[in-house]
Amino acid sequence: MFAEQLIDAALLPAILIAMVGGLMSFLSPCVLPIVPPYLAYMGGVSVSEMAEARAARRKVLTAAWLFVLGLSTVFLLLGLASSVLGRALLQYQAWFVPTAGVVIMIFGLHFLGIFRIRLLDQEARLDSGAGGGTAFGAYILGLAFAFGWTPCLGPILGMVLSLAASEASVARGTTLLAFYAFGLGIPFLLVAAFFPRLQGAMAWMKRHTEKIERISGVLLWTVGLMMVTGQFTAFSWWLLEQFPALAEIG
Question: What is the pTM of this model?
Fold first, then answer.
């Protein structure tokens, strides 16, 4: 019964958006360039060792798992808080959701380069005080990363938090942030495990960060417009029409 209430066809569009949002956060200019040195530091090795030594990559992968656990902890707590707020504001949903949509559309215009919001081009990095190469340090760095990169991740994270709040369900809202953490965290694990093979792909993505930002802007603007116009419900019905098997979910 809990699973039926937790995920249904109506929630699937938001889940997809949350996962894509996590991936776009990973590819953002303030995250992608620091991934290799960050992972190497957490594993207590150098970037060159991570690229050449299998034993070093095993250490980095272990640290990456704990790092992802740390950042997921923060995002799940944010999802919980956002969902609780959404339930408290349930009677104001008629204006809360469109207002959040307008804010998200403004963030989208920032990424599209229509104008720039200086705060969103910064990251308030926190010093965790933990050295690299330890399991505890990797977990703490995950916590610090989730908090410290909030200004940079803010627009996309804010979009997912708004979707979570609009659910007015603690379980469903927290689920959305879990999928956001999944979209952001899995690429860290892939880089840790396959760094030598992915160096070329990462270099290509770094050269196209401006295009990636534009795609993020389109995503934000589209989601914001759907929230303003109430099209999420229509999109859910469209999914059911195109994929009837989804009707069995929930």
Answer: 0.83
